[in-house]
Amino acid sequence: MELKPLVRRARGRGTVELKNLLRRARDSAVGQRALDACGLNQPLSPNGDSPSAVPTLSLHNVLHESRSICLAEMPKGADVILSVGPNGRWYFDWFDEEYGPVKRHIGVEAYTPQPEKLPNNVDWIAEDLAAPGGVAAVETGSVDLVFSGQNIEHLWPEQVVSLLSESNRVLRKDGLLVVDSPNRLLTSVYQWSMGEHTVEFDPVEAETILRLGGFALERMKGLWLCNDNGRLLPLEPSDDVLGGASWVRRIVRATERPHDSFIWWAEARKIGEPDVLGLLRAVTSVFEASWPERVARVKPLNGITIDLPDGRPGVYMPRGSEGYALIGPYMALPPGTFTFSLPVEWDGGAGETVCRLELIGGDELLGSAELEATNARGNVELSCTTTIHKIRFAVHVRLWCPGVADVTAPLTLTMSPDPWH
Fold this sequence. Notes:
seven-stranded mixed beta sheet, six-stranded antiparallel beta sheet, alpha+beta, Rossmann fold, disordered N terminus, elongated
């Protein structure tokens, strides 16, 4: 069913047309699914003006509801489920509501405290499935389904190998592994950054590492269509209820287009033992190829976006303007000593501090480097080195300019060494 003409006709015509739109959408499986996902499959409010309790549309809301649909559509029949990284009582309630209750649900979580009053069928294990030694408390071949939701993009190469190898070990023969994660084909284009992420995989890479982990891919879905035949769509959905044909269509059409969607969802069946060395080589190769782009997800803040002479995007802070020219990329870093570098060009401010590169972890200043101009103009690679003693999240830089000179920099960043070696 084509919803767009219905929505167009509904604009400006009030309750009757909206009722018809909802009624006709509910008569098709596609429309039903889309309305469920966006909270529109509800009765009209008492005054008849609009659907009641319609949630505010946001990327978070759309992705959560789309993941709920995928969870509900997973193959049934699992008696024992292991979830990697559940982070609250709400998670188990959500799982039961969408997938259905199971006899035993094992939650393996090393970083979040155990919730109070867990359901009777839940066993909480305060360990890390991606740790080198695995989780001895879970017997080999004792689990029907392992669910690792929005987790693999938080890991370093050896942890990815451990996650897939340990998932393989605990699963019974023909057991199912379900993984979903943001798609780097889109996160890189949007310059989208999450403070706890390392590197995201694209769907082809995901299928490769699953195969090397001893799994056969049965189904891969897409969540939230972003690339529509070469046209990049806005990442955030519209919150206009009657103008919703775009997000209704994007949710539905994403299912069969994981390469063009913001999240891929993979369901893979255990068929053999993992190729540990091959898996490590494949994951490390992805990191080596994609890490420079991951580090370079820098965006303008108070600066003006410009095109540099070499064609790269850059940022410009004119003399007289004080503030942060750029910021990014927000990522996880393990313990170690790292150097972050940014090329900077200036005009003016001889004998003064023309800018300062600050390295931040969360809200804490980890280090900084000031550029004191000895000449009226020039360019330099401004670098800041810091030592991190424990894993840090939301690591990012920002370039502060006091306004004494014209300052230009590319919207990029480099760091060394690679943090997984």
